[in-house]
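FORM 7B: Structural annotation worksheet

SECTION A. Query
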Amino acid sequence: MKYLSEYRDGSVAFKMVDRIKATSKKPVRFMEVCGTHTTSMFKHGIREVLPEHVAMISGPGCPVCVTATRDIDKALKLARIPGVIVTTFGDMIRVPGSKSSLQNEKSLGADVRMVYSTMDALEVARQNPKKKVVFLGVGFETTAPTIAAAVLAAEVEGINNFSVLSSHKLLPPAMDALLSSGELDVSGFICPGHVSTVIGTASYELVAAKYHTPCVVVGFEPLDILQGIYMLVSQIEVGEARVEIQYRRAVAPEGNPNALKTLYGVFEPCNAPWRGLGVIPKSGLALREAYRSFDADALFDLEVPDSPEPPGCKCGDILRGVKTPIECKLFQHVCTPENPVGPCMVSSEGTCAAHYKYSQL
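SECTION B. Predicted structure
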């Protein structure tokens, strides 16, 4: 509670907590499917101020965390090929594969470079025309349009030493998979703000209608999250299951048509493996045939064996919302941010990393 009291709009936030308590009578379990929401909730102690019958659980909202071990191993195999430069976002460098990590491969002499955007990776390709530059494409619908734009730029400029290893994920199919599994009782979803600025709300409409489960697109301030929870409990108390937008200052129902046009002009949906959830139909993005010359999977031999999760690691269960970090025996004892066993402890948006960081305060 002390965290929320230190928030600049703390008094207003506590009033929203009172509204939730006054409105909510039924036991509910809401899942946030965005790593930024997870971090904000731990940082501000939002779970602690909610009534006991309003439970919050974290889902597969961290793109680094849901990347399957097999995809990490593909990147490691790439890094070991002479003349190849692997570029990626910072968190991915530390994620363990089955036997190594990009950080470890870099220490052994591989050319692995952290970039802040796909256009940075494209610049690496411009400056190293005799090398093959591969960008490890990880992320949800938020980052995928920027990667599509880099592919289009490479095509226009004739940069033929640039390619993408696509491990992108689409969130709505994962929400569908979670509900259809019957493993978890989810009363409603806190939907991601950043993703929704691109895709809008149509995909959530399908989820809400199919499973009679309300969805609210929410911003990232504590007051945003609390208002989103209030909107969810208000729907449930009257038996409704609609899609609402709390984050109206950034999200429109139609999303961003230009970004979607760029995204789906370069990529098409494909079946994709998710850590903890297995292969989900049409939940990934593959480069279309017209852009196959930029597809690292097609340009290199990246066959790798399937690998089990690290012994004792419960990251997959945590991503499905069936376990919490403290239910993992490795948490805080063996698995720490300095020595992560699983990706949920690597990424700043990972549930384990957020729980570890803010439980120490």
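SECTION C. Observations
The first strand starts at residue 28 and ends at 32. The chain has 18 helices and eleven strands.

SECTION D. Sign-off
Analyst initials: ____
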